[in-house]
Write a structure and sequence with these properties.
Blueprint: E1 4-8, H1 12-24, E2 28-33, H2 36-46, E3 50-53, H3 62-72, E4 77-82, H4 87-95, E5 100-103, H5 108-119, E6 124-125, H6 129-140, H7 155-165, H8 170-177, H9 181-195, H10 200-209
Parallel strand pairs: 1-2, 1-3, 3-4, 4-5, 5-6
């Protein structure tokens, strides 16, 4: 299925260039926008699979637009493409609901792969930034509420969840666990229902918050 993409950037030449590159790679660029209010308004109208979002958009930032889009369009995923690799910018974008974060120095091949993986539900980050996000969620989860009753997952569901948090695709998980792709998807859907989550990005966040992203001792 063709992935529909909306490109948001305040520089017209960059915006048009990225849109053209994505179209040439087989993506359907359904819209572009140059500021946050337009991005939110247009996204609600065209409902793209992925919004490629810059952060520096003027009075309202890309973080603001990301928060509004992910709140109103839960099926639309936001991938930040920014010149900034500052830790605060990355964390603010993820907390606003971004599924991933790529810096503009990324190659065309990296961008194409990132958009495809984001559309598939993966959390995608420029090398070095994933560890930052993992560390932040671990810090936030340092004092968990033990009084909260946690959903019971099977050993296999926990194993799949851990690999989702590590950024593996469903096919990679199937190969690693020597099970079928359909079985992996069944475990993912079962876990989503038990945890009352909506997609793999939320699953990854849950796993990170509960310390499930680390390798078990037997596998180290």
């Amino acid at each position: 299925m063709t992935v529909s993409v909306m490109v948001v950037d305040d520089h017209p030449m960059w915006r048009e260039g990225v849109a053209r590159d994505l179209q040439e790679r087989g993506f359907e660029v359904v819209a572009t926008a140059g500021d946050a209010p337009s991005a939110v308004r247009i996204a609600k109208a065209v409902r793209p699979n992925v919004v490629l979002m810059d952060l520096n958009l003027g009075e309202l930032s890309g973080v603001d637009a990301t928060a509004m889009i992910t709140s109103e369009l839960p099926e639309t995923r936001v991938l930040v493409l920014s010149a900034s690799g500052e830790h605060d910018d990355v964390l603010q974008a993820v907390k606003a609901g971004a599924s991933g974060y790529l810096v503009k120095s990324a190659s065309s091949e990296e961008l194409v792969e990132a958009v495809s993986r984001t559309a598939a539900g993966d959390a995608v980050f420029t090398a070095g930034l994933a560890g930052l996000v993992l560390g932040e969620y671990r810090r936030m989860a340092a004092a968990p509420d033990d009084s909260e009753e946690k959903p019971q997952l099977t050993d296999r569901e926990t194993e799949v969840l851990r690999l989702v948090a590590k950024g593996l695709t469903a096919r990679q998980i199937a190969n690693r666990l020597v099970i079928s792709h359909r079985t992996v998807e069944n475990h993912v859907q079962s876990t989503l229902r038990k945890l009352q989550l909506h997609n793999r990005v939320e699953l990854a966040r849950y796993a990170i918050e509960h310390g499930l992203d680390a390798e078990p001792e037997a596998e180290k």
